[in-house]
Amino acid sequence: MIALNHPARLSCLTNLHILDTPVDPHFDALTKLTAHVLRVPRAFVNFVDGARTWCKSAWGAAREIRAHDQSLCAYALENMGESDDVIILDPASQESIQQHPEVTGESKIIFYMAFVLRSPDGFVLGTLCVKDIVAHKPAEHDIAALRLLGAQVTLLLASLLEKQEVADRARRNRDQFLAMLAHELRAPMSPILTAVQILNRSEVTTSQREWAKKLIGRHVRHIGQIVEHLLSTSMVSLGIIKLHLEPVRVVDLLEQAFEMTDAFVEDRHHSLTRTIVGDPVVMADRVQCPLILVNLLSNAAKYTPPHGQIHVSVEGDGERVRIALRDNGVGIEANDLEEIFQIFGQTHRPLDRSAGGLGLGLPFARRLAEWHDGSLEVSSEGAGKGSEFVLWLRQTIETEQREEGHQFVSLEGKLDIVVIDDNVDTADALALYCQMAGHSVRVAYRSEDALDLVRQRIPDVVLSDIGLPEIDGYALVRALRAIAGTASIFSIAITGYASKSDKQLANDAGFDDHFSKPVDLKRLDALLQEIVRKHT
User: Model pTM greater than 0.70?
Assistant: First the structure.
């Protein structure tokens, strides 16, 4: 006997999202094939919940929804044995169904045979059944054929269930991610707003003003890091990032990563040690590869209690270089070792979210490692026993080609600058910054106004947003270049779009340089100083 109202069985049916749903061509093809193979006029795929029989597919009859007491399928499942897979009902010899509505009513069913459809967990879901108004004596090959066809329906159900589980998991991860993103963005916004209010008070002291400004700067940089994580992960997922692999010393990659994470490691009072055997050289992208190590170091620092230990070891075998980061932090449970490399995947965290993070760093790091023709692995003995992340990169014996970085000379000088941005606060803030550096600055909030300013007086530098209304930044710079005497203008694109393809678009449009938002003001200072030098 099967309990049709069993909670686990009903939950499985619900998860399939298959009750009271539109016709599916795959099920229709199987019911049609079943009717032809078994030489019967009617075939059905029915699913039985706690109250009704839902017809998913019908051949030779209309799709119907029947209450349990009106359905031979419900009767058959309720009265089947636990191990039955094929059920045959014969009203001529079974008195219990001779008064059944499908036998005595308009259907006049005389023959019923069904294959029991089950979930991968073994829960009874419904039937693939055939019905006829004449008697049949099915042979063994008929029963075998029904089992074969029923197995195909079961495989289809398993596929639907798997797809639904993937979709449900994606929705859960999306909801979890959005909740985490909201938390991560609210966290820095609160002190920023408080600091702004402090700065607006007349009684604020000089030391308090300095403290508030540093606080605002620190938390704005944090928001910028969140946006950079989102953009980097999106670009990797979409395959937008292009790597330039060249021989690079591992020690140089590590130094870059240490420099980028030094403040965070020091804030947590961790001890960071290293062991490097030889001076191995790997094939790597000088910009992107250090980000793998940055994510690993940041992860170790986050999930290691204060005053913890982080050790980095490097050793090559001639073909590959092993870069291992070992910490004595919170560790990782065995069933979470792969979950942490899934987009938005994280191990179970407390509600206070003291460690923070969006669950993007490690998936990003593994994908970058694979794009370097390498790999990223993790091991841990469990909760509280620390973790070890191992990055493998391809070793090379080629001599590293170094490029001397250009040293900008700090010079005093004045430039004529036009700032263009439809966001008034952004434009005014950047203009004020340039004015405080001693430059002459004019501001335009619309593309047409910017063209008028340039026609009135040709500037030395144009700082322009890309996402402008009416005329975007690409069209604007082309229009500027068409004005007589503007060939010497140094035009800089300032935009929230920061991929290599976006930079190429800016270059193709006529921009001389590209800055992503928020603007790296130190880099902007250096560039403006270089322009001053060229003008002197």
Answer: no
Please state which of the ranges 34-48, 378-392, 507-521 shows the lowest mean pLDDT. Answer: 507-521
The answer on 131 and 46 residing in a single domain is yes
Domain with residue 388: its CATH number is 3.30.565.10
- Same domain? For 145 and 185 the reply is no
For 405-460, strand residue ranges (E) read: 416-420, 440-444
Task: Please indicate whether residue 394 or residue 231 has the higher confidence score (pLDDT).
Answer: 394
Q: Are residues 433 and 304 in the same domain?
A: no
Q: Is the dihedral of CA 118, 122, 124, 125 positive or negative?
A: negative
Query: Under a CB-based contact definition with an 8 Å cutoff, are residues 340 and 389 in contact?
Result: no
Where in the sequence is the domain holding 33, given as residue range(s)?
A: 7-167
Residue with tokens 């006029």: 41
Tokens 């063994």 — which residue? 140
How many whole angstroms separate alpha carbon 493 and alpha carbon 485? 20
- The C-alpha angle 222, 269, 259, rounded to 5 degrees, equals 55
Closest CA to 433 of 445, 447, 419: 419
d(CA 304, CA 300): 6
Could you report the per-residue pLDDT of 392-439, keeping only the tens digit for each? Answer: 999 997 654 443 333 333 334 689 999 999 888 888 888 888 888 889
The reply to whether 194 and 54 lie within a common domain is no
Query: Nearest 5°: phi and psi at 157?
Result: -65, -45
Residue 65 pLDDT:
92
The CA–CA distances, whole Å, from 118 to 153, 166, 168, 341, 440 equal 10, 20, 21, 33, 77
The residue ranking higher by pLDDT, 333 or 316, is 316
